[in-house]
């Protein structure tokens, strides 16, 4: 079942168990199920536990890996009652590490991947020692955090153009996600692996990994489902499967992040908006040898990309510049790339700077054009 389907089943079961009573206050939604999966809820209310046991065919709460955290006064804490974990508890440690992850995602946007990677690496070193120290019931939550941090490190290494380190961290994330059979982290780390294969020029392996990630599709939140389809489409387009790629991009719009309001910034796939999807449509059109269409699509998509998502915005401009080059428009390619250059610098993305350098080499035979000359002059200082 997907999270939404599980939530619906729990609500229907609540109505059956407590027929004649108003239990709407106990109803759950897909976000609540997500928090349950991530270990943020470990002791739902008695009514919700009863419904979960029935839906999932469990005899006891322990069969669901649910346990009762205790306050210092010995009373149980049910979900929604205690807003904060008890100071000094393992609950608090896990909560703080999870909050720190969100902060580090924002650090990447504000200060760049090199700065964020220092924090992620330090926190990961701390988390790696925790699984053997925490109570058994908390071990899955800690291992999931380790997978989450490792996958973030993989992305940051990718941004810094360090592909070998990115691959290592991705494999680490996959191993941890596999230990606890976590579909969300397994799918996301596999998605990252597909990106890495595509970037390193192995589209067939990228397709393979994208398809493996999509096996978990129905268990994932909407924005992640959109991101997985975008990656699958891009990989297929790189292998010449252009029609299939376009169909996937059309489908991705059903799950775009801007169609799912309330998704926290920094959650997996929260960047996969309609604008992001259309930029990738432009990239796929260019791979299909349709550069003029690609330029038009990316032009329309650019205003929809938040400027604080500097890497995404610089990458969109890069894709447009490459399409101009493919359309034999070196002056416009250089002008667009020149626009991307300071944004990529501020974002700290060595990956995009490296790709801009490749584009510079491609247009360097047209230095009689002022736009090309200005771009190449500025490029020397950036790379």
From TrEMBL:
InterPro entries named among the record's database cross-references: TPR-like_helical_dom_sf
Gene3D superfamilies documented for this protein: Tetratricopeptide repeat domain
Chain positions covered by the region annotation Disordered: 66-85
The protein's name: XRE family transcriptional regulator
Gene source species: Micromonospora deserti
Taxonomic placement: Bacteria, Bacillati, Actinomycetota, Actinomycetes, Micromonosporales
């Amino acid at each position: 079942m997907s999270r939404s389907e599980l939530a619906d089943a729990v609500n229907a079961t609540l109505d059956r168990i407590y027929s004649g009573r108003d239990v709407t206050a106990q109803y759950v939604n897909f976000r609540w199920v997500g928090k349950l999966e991530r270990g943020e809820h470990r002791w739902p209310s008695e009514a919700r536990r009863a419904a979960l046991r029935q839906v999932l065919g469990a005899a006891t709460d322990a069969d669901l890996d649910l346990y009762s955290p205790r306050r210092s006064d010995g009373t149980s804490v049910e979900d929604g009652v205690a807003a904060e974990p008890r100071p000094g508890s393992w609950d608090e440690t896990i909560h703080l590490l999870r909050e720190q992850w969100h902060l580090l995602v924002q650090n990447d946007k504000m200060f760049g991947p090199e700065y964020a990677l220092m924090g992620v690496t330090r926190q990961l070193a701390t988390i790696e020692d925790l699984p053997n120290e925490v109570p058994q019931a908390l071990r899955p939550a800690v291992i999931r955090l380790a997978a989450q941090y490792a996958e973030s490190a993989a992305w940051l290494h990718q941004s810094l153009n360090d592909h070998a380190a990115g691959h290592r961290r991705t494999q680490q994330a996959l191993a941890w996600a596999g230990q606890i059979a976590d579909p969300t982290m397994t799918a996301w780390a596999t998605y990252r692996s597909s990106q890495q294969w595509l970037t390193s020029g192995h589209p067939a392996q990228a397709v393979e990994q994208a398809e493996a990630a999509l096996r978990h599709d129905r268990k994932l939140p909407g924005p992640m489902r959109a991101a997985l389809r975008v990656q699958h489409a891009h990989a297929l387009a790189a292998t010449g499967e252009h029609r299939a790629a376009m169909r996937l991009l059309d489908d991705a719009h059903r799950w775009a992040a801007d169609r799912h309001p309330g998704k926290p910034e920094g959650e997996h796939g929260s960047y996969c908006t309609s604008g992001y999807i259309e930029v990738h449509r432009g990239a796929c059109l260019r791979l299909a040898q349709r550069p003029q269409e690609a330029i038009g699509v990316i032009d329309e998509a650019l205003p929809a990309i938040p400027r604080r998502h500097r890497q995404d915005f610089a990458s969109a401009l890069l894709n447009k510049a490459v399409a101009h080059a493919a359309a034999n428009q070196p002056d416009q390619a250089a002008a667009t790339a020149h626009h991307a250059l300071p944004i990529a610098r501020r974002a700290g993305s060595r990956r995009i700077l490296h790709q801009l350098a490749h584009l510079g080499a491609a247009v360097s035979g047209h230095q009689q054009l002022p736009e090309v000359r200005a771009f190449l002059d500025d490029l020397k200082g950036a790379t």
